[in-house]
Amino acid sequence: MNQPDPKAELLELCDRLLDGEFTPEDRARLEALVLGDADLRRLYVETLHLHAALRQNAPRLSDAPLAEIVATSLRDVRGPEGRGYNVLRCPRWPMQIAAGLAIGLGIWWFTPRPAERPLATLVETNGARWENSSLPTSPGSALHAGRLRLADGVARIVFQSGAEVSLEGDAELELTGPNACFLHSGALTAHVPEQAKGFVVGTANAKLIDHGTDFGISTDAAGRAQVQVLQGEVELQHGRSGDTLRHQTRESTAITAERFSPTKDKADGEPDRYAFARTTTAARKPMLALTTAGGSGDAAYVVSPKSPIHYSDTLLLVKNAPTTSYLRKALLRFDLTPLRERRVAEASLALNFEATGFGYASLTDECVFAVYGVTDDAQDAWSAETLAWENAPAFSADAGAVDTTRAVKLGTFTTPRGVVSGAFSIEGEALADFLNADANRRATLVVVRETVQQGNTTAVHGFAGNRHPTLAPPTLRLTLAE
Amino acid sequence: MSPPDRAEEFVFLLARHERLLGAYVMTMVPHPQDADDILQEAKVVMWRAFGKFEPGTNFGAWARKVAFHQVLAFRKRKHRDRLDFSEDFLRAVADEAESSADRLEQRERVLHECIAKLPADHREALDLRYREGLSLEDMAARLGRTVGALYRLLSRVRAVLHECVTQNLNRHEPA
User: For residue A212, with 0-12 CB atoms within 10 Å meaning exposed, 13-18 middle and 19 or more buried, which class applies?
Assistant: First the structure.
């Protein structure tokens, strides 16, 4: 087929997605086709829906003899796919619905994921101080999938596979499998015995696969990381570049969003855990910090018309509970004139959250927040006094979004379940590009909570504005280009 | 309304919509186990939020909204993989699935007629792939065929079924 037929191309991509080797390039192409054409969008949804329907109708697919059907349904119940909720999938078999609902409901009211086995055990802790974690933190606890936030001290965790990890606070670790974890920030050392070869530590920019070693890894929240092999061999896979790298005893590498930078340790030097951060300091690039309290900066929040009046003059409140119309978004304006003509090479935005006292943190799930940059410079002239829900820059009635014809998304951050305080930040090229493109030297940002939580019992999130007595106001940290 | 009534109502509505909801999730997350996990989480969230659901309104649409947020939450939690669909893409697909919800339900209803018309070896291939969940490699070993041949076969079978369903629907209710 030489004629480029988008429909045929889309179906080929779907085949690769469902049965073959689907590559990142395929994904990009598939997205472009589906986003660009309504007919192709419809074809994609129908094709995937067919795939789903085939799976759900699987018991009827072949006209098998009765004996075989009985045998397979027994096998299905015992097999790994035989969780209670899978049985629910066959509403045309009334007995199974009844049984499935009884089992399913009975279990998920109390423990959401019944079939899940613990992934690891928290063996011991040393001077450990925990922040709100989604997992138990007393020694001896069985750990399921979830996050541990260790503020201070050391905690030793043994995975089901036998891999041993010592987590050093301040750190945030997510357990993702019986032989796998994701290090969001902080440092850990690992001892991986023979039977646990293949142990995986994910970080934002690269994945480490162990081949039987002792190693150390540290990362900051932005995914800049450092890996040291203490003994043995590890493999590193870079997320964006696709590069892979093998490291042996005493070798180490710094990981950034763009690449690996291998560096041999000095013969008897101590491992430099934060070498990735020092390379930027060593270069002594000029830095600049701007807050919403400086120059023509400002910080405020808007409240939807029907929302009850919860007021804070120190915190900027953010909430997204549409059914009850409890909607709040925060607006930030930075005065960029101190930049003068210099370009921003790297940028981060830090927000200091604090409990607002409205709603219960314990009833609040993990929440995703998004930061948008207002591209329509005509909308930068707002003031905290006259700002209202409808006249807010890049106004959208949706509390979790903005008018994207007037603003671009710059990044997101996530607050763990039950956590309403602490520093959270975004950084990246989108933020730097946005600041460089701003013509009138005043940059307005909108902070929204994408996660919808219904009801009035969940927490209202808040972060420090310009008048907080102790916490720093929203702050842009900029590294300037030469 | 007392709690037991609500539970009963929830179970009833969920039983009616669960399969459609599962298919909805799979349009965005084709991987079966991931889709199952998301559906499971969505059901928990739906039950917790069920007090906010107004009886008599569209349960399917409400459930899809909850499930969509679980898809996004799953994506955030899983962290970036270069194979992950973008949020724009997921939203576009979700919108399409939402506006086509009724038609997709009809499509599923006539699907079994089309499956019945398939030759036996095609049905067997679907059975191994979708009921037993075999990989193409395992299917190849079982059937004594090459992976490439099975890949083309599955592709063709899906295309045939898609066409058959479209035609049957047009026949049932001429446009």
Answer: middle
| Phi, psi angle pair for A400, to nearest 5° | -95, 5
Q: Which amino acid appears at position A447 of this protein?
A: V
CA distance B23 to chain A (A): 5
Q: Whole-structure pTM over 0.90, yes or no? A: no
Q: How many CB atoms lie within 10 A of CB A194?
A: 7
C-alpha to C-alpha distance for A473 and A97, rounded to whole angstroms: 55
Residues 191-250 of A with CB under 8 A from B: 202, 204, 239-240, 242
Cβ neighbourhood burial of B78 (10 Å; 0-12, 13-18, 19+): middle
Instruction: Nearest chain B residue to A90 by CA: give it.
Output: B19
Nearest to A125 by CA among A111, A112, A143: A143
pLDDT tens track for A181-216:
999 889 999 998 888 888 999 988 888 998 878 899
Question: In terms of CA atoms, which chain B residue is nearest residue A58?
Answer: B131
Q: With CB atoms and an 8 Å threshold, state whether B154 touches A109.
A: no
Q: Name which of B23, B49, B96 is nearest A52 (Cβ-Cβ).
A: B23
Inform me whether the C-beta atom of residue A455 falls under 8 Å from chain B C-beta atoms: yes
Helix (H) or strand (E) holding A251: strand A251-255
Residue A233 pairs in a beta bridge with A248
> Which residue has tokens 């709100």?
A132
Give how far B108 is from chain A: nearest CA, Å. 6
Helices B3-28 and B32-49 meet at what angle, rounded to 10? 150
> Could B52 and A368 be called an inter-chain contact, meaning their C-beta atoms sit closer than 8 Å?
no
Confidence at residue B173, expressed as pLDDT on a 0 to 100 scale: 60
Q: Please tell me which of the candidates A23, A53, A91 has its beta carbon nearest to residue B111.
A: A53
Q: pLDDT tens digits for A399-426?
A: 888 998 999 999 999 888 888 888 889 9
Is residue A129 within 8 angstroms of chain B, CB to CB?
Answer: no
Is pLDDT of A279 > 50?
no
Residue A281 — φ and ψ, nearest 5°? -65, -40
DSSP 8-state class, residue A292: T
The residue among A162, A473, A52 whose CA lies nearest residue A290 is A473
ipTM: 0.93
